[in-house]
Specification:
Layout: H1 2-18, E1 41-44, E2 47-51, E3 67-71, E4 74-77, H2 83-108, H3 133-142, H4 171-179, E5 200-206, H5 208-213, E6 223-229, H6 236-239, H7 247-252, H8 269-289, E7 298-299, H9 303-311, E8 373-379, H10 384-387, E9 402-406, E10 423-426, E11 434-435, E12 439-441
Parallel strand pairs: 8-11
Antiparallel strand pairs: 1-4, 2-3, 4-12, 5-6, 7-12, 8-9, 9-10
Helix pairs in contact: 2-4
Keywords: Lipoprotein
Protein name: Gliding motility lipoprotein GldK
Pfam families: FGE-sulfatase
Length: 450
């Protein structure tokens, strides 16, 4: 017994001697945090401003009384999310679905990479002898816990997908790829297209607001799973404007390279939220592969953040450039909107323009007025300014399906371009004049506007 106590005491002594804190309270060590400016974003330094309509409310909305509020620092996309950027999301989802189908069929047929063909796309964990102890444990304890029985399996993303039908490796591969396209009966002109209804993105998020209000409850009670089709609704160009010839925009706007740098439209609020989740996952998957720390989430801006960013640091400006005029000293329009009744083209644009058009505001943000209206994360309540906090004010209400949109668009008159004008759309709706941009919280508090 004495020998055991001596060993324990000696161990504690050696442990204490090995520490570098000299017995002082120095805190837990960790890596020094170096904030990294997200690609394509600009820093909006936090601060206070007068939110609401300081000018006359000519529309009589009475939904934006002035109040002084403060927002924290955040990064914001310099431009609206473009067709090219959203297509990256769509392509990732399509790639993942195809690889999942290939892996499931390979597993069903008992094929592995050694068999070639579709076996090349077998689950990465098909050979358990190559798994780490952790991955093997996770597969044995959590693999298959879901509807399909293949949840928790790791996709093999090394082999490239083959799109040339003449180079399909075997009949199994052909079967999977054929299932991704519309049937021959639904095709015309001899051209088959991808069945976009299959392009669904599934993710889980936690309703922190609801969890904070509940005194009791398990964490899983506040986890919500979303699964939705993520391909933009290209028919908005037809549905939004009856008795109008907009078929070329319907046919080409989203997928054609000519429109790659134009803002994506036809995306609902829910789809914009899904994009934010994917962007976070996509970045953190890369961070993990490089052994780097995770970044915090990308998200839609709350209404106060959007207005603060749109103002560009200018006090009581009517537009992002100040105002009150809509043209510069050369007589050129400062934004893409509808200048007069029936006149869409005086500003040199009939529909949208490239996302990086006109001059940015003083925060380096493009098209915070006009081009496309933008989704925010806030629910729309005409009275929310009366009860919302003065610190990062946000009307959060999951039951309220009306979501705030800001900035006005190519089809709107000047009133909707004002930084203080509020508007809304239902969260399941998609329009030819609504897009979005994302934000990311600044970690720390040193970047505050003065």
């Amino acid at each position: 017994m004495k020998r055991l106590l001596f060993v324990i005491t000696l161990g504690l002594f050696l442990y204490s001697c090995g520490k570098k804190d000299r017995g002082e309270l120095v805190g837990v060590g960790g890596k020094r945090w170096h904030p990294e400016k997200p690609y394509g974003m600009t820093l909006v330094p936090g601060g206070s401003f007068i939110m609401g309509k300081s000018e006359s409310d000519v529309a009589g909305g009475m939904n934006a009384p002035t109040k002084t509020v403060t927002v924290r620092s955040f990064y914001m996309d310099e431009t609206e999310i473009t067709n090219s950027e959203y297509r990256q999301f769509v392509e990732w989802v399509k790639d993942s679905i195809i690889r999942t189908k290939l892996a499931i069929l390979a597993d069903y047929e008992g094929l592995t990479p050694d068999d070639g063909g579709i076996g090349e796309y077998a689950f990465d964990d098909a050979d358990t002898s190559k798994l780490s102890a952790y991955d093997k444990y996770m597969l044995e304890n959590y693999g298959g816990m879901g509807e399909t029985g293949y949840e928790g399996r790791m996709l093999n993303k090394k082999p490239r997908l083959i799109w040339d039908t003449s180079k399909y490796p075997d009949e199994y591969y052909t079967e999977v790829m054929d299932s991704m396209y519309l049937s021959m009966e639904e095709s015309y002109n001899g051209y088959r297209t991808i069945d976009v209804t299959q392009l669904k993105y599934k993710y889980t998020w936690m309703d922190i607001q609801a969890a904070a209000k509940m005194k009791k409850g398990n964490r899983k009670d506040f986890l919500k799973t979303e699964e939705l089709m993520i391909y933009p609704d290209t028919t908005v160009w037809i549905k939004d404007f009856y008795y109008s010839y907009n078929e070329p925009m319907h046919n080409d706007y989203f997928w054609h390279d000519a429109y790659s740098e134009y803002p994506v439209v036809g995306v609902s609020w829910k789809q914009a939220k899904a994009f934010c989740n994917w962007r976070t996952k996509y970045k953190n998957d890369f961070q993990k592969s490089r052994g780097k720390g995770f970044v915090n989430q990308f998200r839609l801006p709350i209404e106060a953040e959007w207005e603060y960013a749109a103002r560009g640091g200018l006090e009581s400006g009517t537009y992002p450039w100040g105002g009150p005029y809509l043209i510069d000293e050369r007589g050129c329009f400062l934004a893409n909107f509808k200048p007069n009744r029936g006149d869409y083209a005086s500003d040199d644009a009939l529909y949208t323009v490239e996302a990086k058009s006109y001059q940015p505001n003083d925060y380096g943000l493009y098209n915070m007025a006009g081009n496309v209206s933008e989704w925010t994360n806030s629910a729309y309540d005409p009275n929310s300014y009366d009860y919302a906090s003065t610190m990062n004010p946000n009307a959060y209400d999951e039951r309220n399906k009306r979501k705030v949109i800001r900035g006005g668009s190519w089809k709107d008159v000047a009133y909707f371009l004002q930084v203080s004008t509020r508007d809304f759309e239902y969260q399941d709706s998609a329009r030819s004049y609504i897009g979005f941009r994302t934000v990311q919280d600044y970690m720390g508090t040193s970047e505050i506007g003065r």
